[in-house]
Amino acid sequence: MKKPWRFWLGTLCSLLILALALSLLYHIGDQYHWHDVTAEIRKLSWGQIGLALILTVVSYWLLTLYDLLAVRQVGGQIPYPKVALTSFIAYTFSNTLGFAILTGTSVRYRFYSALGLSTGQIARVVFFCSVTFFLGLFLVGGLALSMGLASLPDSIQLPAWLAPFLHSLGLLAVGLAIGYLILPLLRSEPVRFRGYVLPLPRWRESASQMVVAIGDWVAAAAVCYVLLPSADGLSYWHVLSIFVVANLLGVLAHVPGDI
Q: Is the backbone of residue 107 left (phi > 0), alpha (psi -120 to 50) or beta?
């Protein structure tokens, strides 16, 4: 049976983004040496390092709530410590190695199946966590793209066509996130698509997803902002905008570390 053209198109796009990322990394890295990197690290104060560590812990704690909300949504009664351990290991692998569908899903299947969840429940957990991830990406990232990129410093020049496109994309992303939030208020029946039945979360669950996802993205971008050297005109909103775009490209290309 032949692969559908969408599979090959998606693979080609991922490879192109990966090649672009590696090319960019090569040209950037060629300008610096190891001692330049270590010299910059030594410039960081203990306050910066401590705050970055705290924000990292907060971000990973919020990631465990992704899984906790998902497990509860599918009817699982697994204690939080076991859910948190599974979530931490899954996100450690997926954030470090990339290919989240393969790495994170494999970890969740191994642990959650041993803890009593069925294959169908585990699939719904993975889907719920993915929705939470993109919910935060769309809302926080949409606000950052529509607001943060409008006042970038002069040293960061964007093509004339790119800024309006990203602004419109940001507004669309915010609209999708808000639409997901209010959907349970307008519809209670499951969504049916090509034979699949997808139960909709209750409004309290979708609101919890929104709060957790916002906190995670804000904390993760704050880690990057805290560790950056000071630059005139570069605000947290600007860093958040760039951080979101990097994460989006990382998801599309399955490249670890948002290279």
A: alpha
d(CA 16, CA 199): 36
- For residue 180, CA distances in Å to 49, 191, 205 come to 37, 13, 11
Residue pair 222/54 in contact (Cβ under 8 Å)? The answer is no
126-173 pLDDT per residue, tens? 888 888 888 888 888 888 777 766 555 565 666 666 667 777 878 888
Three-state DSSP at 169 gives helix
Instruction: Specify whether the CB–CB gap between 250 and 258 falls below 8 A.
Output: yes
Is the distance from CB of 244 to CB of 221 less than 8 angstroms? yes
Closest listed residue to residue 139, CA positions, set 183, 186, 171, 182: 171
The Cα–Cα gap between 220 and 133 comes to 12
Taking only the tens place, the pLDDT of each residue in 75-104 is 888 999 999 999 998 888 877 766 666 777
Answer whether 129's CB lies under 8 Å from 66's CB.
yes
Dihedral sign from CA coordinates of 145, 218, 223, 90: negative
